[in-house]
Specification:
single chain, 293 residues, Ribosomal Protein L15, Chain: K, domain 2, Four Helix Bundle (Hemerythrin (Met), subunit A), 2 domains, four-stranded mixed sheet, three-stranded antiparallel sheet
Length: 293
């Protein structure tokens, strides 16, 4: 099970007999790693402490889809792994290059579903030759522009402006993309934390303020899959413009009612990716160990 998705709470939320009880259903705590809640709910401190003792994280998402809060359990720190993360910064560029290479490979492969053949050879050669993180990010940015030029062209012109926008998202495609990216970012943060990583020690992205940059590093492995899921939502007309509203800041956001329907499909997609996330985190741990040998 690993993650419980709670989109509607009709009959309370409580912990009883080592199970989460909500809407007449029982979720054994021993099978849970994370709870995602998208409805209004009151959780008392006693239940929060029980969840913390079981090393269960909780992600709260506001009804307007704009705000997220991640509650993590207080667990013993894995000092050896964190020390390895610091030492691996000596090979920051090598680790960052491997992340970008995998990202562009995944994205180019994804475009083939839509009959686009994006040649990544020039980008791969540039990655091999680049000398610093800033240059690497520039290569990634140029690839992203090539990718999104093709990706946005698969949608009807009346639902997208044809380019990536965020903070705020300016059309419904960007809105859903950012929404799911953010959910994955927080999910990855919780998984890294439980695994003993320090989520702010990163290699491709640079941490700032409360940004967990390592979560953004890991997110790169999932972006193309998320983009494919977003495409299927609109191309199969699961979601339409009627499911979104415009905020006072000009941003476009998913309506609460539509979000409940989305979660029926999104929860299945996320469960499919949970296995991939565990493998990627395990492999990342190995790559860090290898970089300091």
């Amino acid at each position: 099970m690993n993650t419980a998705f709670i989109t509607k709470i009709d009959s309370g939320f409580k912990i009883e007999n080592s199970s989460l009880k909500v809407n007449g259903r029982n979720f054994p705590l021993r099978l849970l790693e994370m709870i995602i809640i998208t409805d209004d709910v009151v959780v008392n401190s006693k239940d929060m402490l029980k969840l913390s003792r079981e090393n269960i994280s909780i992600l709260f998402i506001s009804k307007d889809s704009k705000h997220f809060s991640l509650c993590l359990p207080l667990i013993a720190k894995n000092s050896d792994l964190k020390a390895s993360q610091y030492r691996a910064l000596e090979d920051r560029q090598g680790i960052a290059k491997s992340i970008v290479y995998q990202k562009i490979s995944n994205h180019a492969e994804s475009l083939k579903k839509y009959d686009f053949d994006l040649d990544i050879y020039p980008f791969v050669e540039e990655i091999k030759r680049c000398l610093n993180i800033e240059e690497l990010l520039s290569i990634e940015g140029r690839f992203a522009k090539n990718y999104f030029d093709r990706y946005f062209s698969i949608f009807p012109k009346n639902i997208t402006k044809g380019f990536r926008s965020k903070n705020p998202p300016l059309d419904i495609v960007n809105s859903l993309m950012s929404y799911i990216y953010t959910i994955f970012y927080h999910t990855i943060t919780a998984k890294l934390y439980i695994a003993g990583f320090e989520p702010s020690i990163s290699y491709l992205h640079t941490p700032f303020r409360s940004h967990y940059a390592l979560s953004s590093d890991i997110l790169e492995f999932f972006r193309s899959d998320i983009n494919d899921f977003v495409a299927s939502e609109f191309l199969n007309k699961h979601l339409t413009s009627e499911d979104f509203s415009k905020s006072s800041n000009g941003g476009i956001y998913l309506k609460f009612e539509a979000r409940r329907e989305l979660w029926k499909r999104l929860s299945l997609f996320m469960r499919e990716k949970e296995k991939d996330l565990k493998v990627i985190i395990a492999n990342f741990k190995k790559s860090i160990a290898k970089s300091i040998e």
